[in-house]
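Provenance and format

Records in this collection were gathered into a single text stream. Each protein contributes a sequence line and a C-alpha cell line. The two records reproduced below are adjacent in the stream.
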Amino acid sequence: MSELFNKVKRCFGDYAVDKRLAYELELAKLPRYVAEFLISEFMYGGGDWESKLRNFVKDHYYEPEEKEVVKHKLVTEGVVRLIDELRVYVDIETETHVGVIQALDIWALVPVDIVNRNRATLTTGMWGLITLKKSDIPIEVFGRPISVVVADFKPFQAPDTDPKILEEARECFTLDEWIDVLINTIGLDPTVYSPRQKLLLLSRLIPLAEGNVNMVEFGPRQTGKMYLYRNVSNYVRIISGGIISPAVLFYNLRTRVPGELAVKDVVVFDEVSKVRFQNPDEMMGKLKDYMESGHYERGDKKVVSDASLVFMGNIAVEMSAEGYVPIEDLTYVLPEPMRDSAFIDRIHGLLPGWELPKISQTKYHLSKGYGIASDYFAEALHSMRKESLVGLVGKHIELSENFKIRDEKSFKKITSALIKLLFPHKSFNKSELKLVADAALEFRQRVRDWLHKIAPGEFPKERLNIRIYS
C-alpha cells in the first residue's frame, strides 16, 4: 500500500474507503455512495461478506424495466423489499405522506414515524432498503388511488456529516497529495492524469461546493462527465435529454410539489442538445431569471433556491499540437432556445472537457486505492454550500477594470468553490491561490470569448486580468 493511502487511512479513520471494492464487487448499478455504505456494513460482519453483499444486491435491487416484477410480487406475495431512493411528498388536504420510488414509478403511503426518522426523504430523497406492503383499502392522494404502504425503511446514509473532519484531515496532506486524494475519492486513478487534467476533473465539483453556480462542459463521450455526477452525491438530479416541463423543474401546480430546483443542490442537463421544453418561452424566461437571481415564481408559489445548474454537451473533437480541440461551434451544441447571449452570459464558467481523455478499461482509469467515503464526502460538499468565500476572494484579489458585474460574480463564485475544495482549512499561500484564481479566470474568459463570437457588437474581444495581493 502506498504512503498516500496509508496517510488517508490514518487521517480519515472510518471515513477512509478502498475505492476498488465498489467496482470489483460488481456494484456499478448502484450509486457509489450507496455501494460504499453497503461495503462498510457487510465488511464488518465477517465471514464471506463479499458473497453475502452480492446476493443482497441481487435479491433487492431492481432495474427500472423490472417495475412490473415488483408490482407482481406485491400482488402475489403482499410484500417486497427493494434497494432504491425514497422521496416523500405531503398532501396537506388528506394529511398523508406519499413516498415516490421514481425509477419504478411506484407510489406508497409512508407512516409519519418513518418520515420523522428520515427527514431527508422530504427534501433530497434518500437511498435505503424499502419494505413495501400491499394495502387492502386504497387511499386517493394527489388524484390517484394508492394501495401500497412503506412498512419499513433502512437508510444508507453517513452517520456523521461534520465538515470539521475534512478540514482537520486536510492538514495531513500537501496540495498535490490532497488533489490525488480527491481524485481517488471520486473514483478515478490520479496517476493517469496530468496536473492540468486533475484540476479540470475537480472543477466538476464546483457546483456541488458553491450555491447558484451555472457551469457548462463540452467534451467527447466517455470522459466521465456523468460518472461523477451520478456517483458522488445524492444531492444531484440528472435530467437526460427529453421533454422537460415547468412542473418537473420549478413547481407542480396540480400536486403543489416543488420541482427539482427547489430540492436538489445541483441539476444536471445531460446531452443538453437533446433537451426540449414544453413551453420554451415560459421555461427560458424562468430559467434565465433563476440563473440571475436564485429565485423563481410559478402560479402563486415563490421559491428561493441555491441549486446550481450544469449543462453537459457532447461534441466532436480532433487532435492538434495542443491536444484535443473541438471542431464544432459550441453554440449549436445547445438547443435552439438557449442560443442567445442573455442565456450564455448567465453561465459562470465553461469547462474545456475536450482536454480530458476517455475512460477506457477499469484497470487503467478507475481508482486503485483509498479515498474519502463517498457518503461522507457528499455531506461535506453539501455543508460547504452554507458558507461563501466570495468576501475572502475580494480581500486577496484585485480585478481589472474591464470586469463587468457578471464577470466579477462568476469569477468570485468559482474561486470560492475551488478554495473550499482544495483548502477546506482555509490555509493557502499566494502561489496556491493563484492556481485556483487562474482556473476561475480561464473558465469565465471562455464564456466571454464565446459571447464575443455570437454577439461581437455587444461583447468586445478583451482579456480579463487579476492581481493577487501578497
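Adjacent record:
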Amino acid sequence: MLSQEDTELLTRIGPGTAMGELMRQYWHPVAYPWELEPDGQPQRIRILGEDLLAWRDTNGTPAFTQARCPHRGASLYFGRNEDGGIRCAYHGWKFDPSGACVDMPNEREESNFKHKVKITAYRGADFGGLVWIYMGPHQSGPPGIPQFEWGLVPEEQRSHYRKVVYECNWMQALEGEMDSTHVYFLHSRLRREDTPKYGTFHTSLSAQFHLRDAEFGMTYAAERLEEDGNTYWRTTHFLFPAYGMFPGAENSIPLSIYVPIDDEHTLHMGIRWSPSQPVAGSRWPTPELSDEPGILIEGMGPMKPEQKGRYFAKWWPEASPETDFLMDLDVKKTKNATGIPSVRLQDSAVLWSMGPIMDRTLEHLCTTDSAIIKVRRKLLAAARQLREDGTPPPGVEHPELYNVRSCNVSLPPGANWEEELADWHYARTKEYPRSATGERSAPAHTRR
C-alpha cells in the first residue's frame, strides 16, 4: 500500500503539483490529424487539468490555446478560425498559434493595446499519425517527441485503433499494463477448446516476474512454465511518463497511452504496429460490436452521441458503469469470464470500479504486483527529484530511447530471456523471436 502523501503526489497532475510538473516535461498525444482541419472548428480538450482549444491555422500548424478570451472571458470555441488565427466571436479579438493578439478591431486604429495582450499557448506538432502537445517550460525550444517505432514506419504498418475518455485517474489505468497475471483471469475464455476469439487461456495462472531498470523506465518479463517443459515469456515496457507496451501477436506490437485529462479522467489511446509488414484491420477506431455474442472486438465499441459542451466530445463510450459495460450475462455463463465484449472494456470495468482515484492506503499488494510497485517508486522518485534539483525525468532529453518493442515467446528451459530477446526488444532486427520449437511465437490470445 501507499501512504496518503504518496498517493496524492502520484495521482494529482494539476498545475503546480509535483507530478503535474513532471508530466509537463513531456510531449503528449491528444488528437488524430483529421480531427483538426486548417481553418476548421476548434475542438475542446482538457489536458493536465487545463481547459484548452485545439485547432489548426491556415498553414496547417497545430495550435493549443486557452479556452477563453482574455477580454471578457467569452469562450473562443464560438469564434472563427481564419487567416492564421482564432477570432473571438464577442468583439473580434484575434490570436495566432503563439498566443499573440494580432488584431483588435474594436479598438481605435492608433491603439497599441493588442501588443500588450497574450493568451496561454502551447506548442503543437504532428508525428506518427497523432497530434502532440507540449505544455512544459521550454516553449521556444521543446525537447524532441518520443521516437516510437510506430511513428517511423509507413502508415500502412500502424493502426490507431483505440481512443476513449476513461473516467478514472491516469495512474490506476497505467497500472493495469504492469499486471500480467490479470490477463488469464479478466480476459479469459471459460474452456480451453473454445475459440481464442472468446478470450485468453493458460494453464499456469501465476507467474514469476523479472524486473529490469531501463533508461526509458522499466522492463519486466513474466515467466510461466509450459506443459511441454519450455518457458513462456511475456515482456512489457513501462515508458515515462505514462506508456505501457505489452506483448501482442506475432510481428505486431501494441502500445497503450494514458494522458491525464485531470485528476479523475484519462485520455486513453491504443496503437498497434509492425516493423516489417502491413497491419491488418482498421486504421482508426471503429464503433462496431461483434455480431456474435462472446467474440471480443478491438477497441472500445460505439461512442455516445457527441457530448456537446464537453472536452473530447466525440470520445465518450457507450460502455460505462451506467450500462454495466455492455455485459452479456449469457456470454458470462457460457463463453468468457465477464461477458463484456472487448478486452479494453473489460479493463475499463475493473479500473473504473475502483473509483475516480483509487485509495491506495487500503490495498494489499502481493508478489505478482512487483512491477506496479516499481513503477510507482520510479514515478515518485522522478517527480521529487525534478522538484528538488531540476533533474530532467527519464526520456525527456533522449527521445530515441522510445524505439523499443515487446514480445511473447516460448524459450527452452534455462534460456536467458534478456539475451535471446535483446535484438528484437531494441529494434535491431525485424525478425520476430522464434519459440523453443523453432516456430515463431503464437499470438498471446491463443496461448494455452
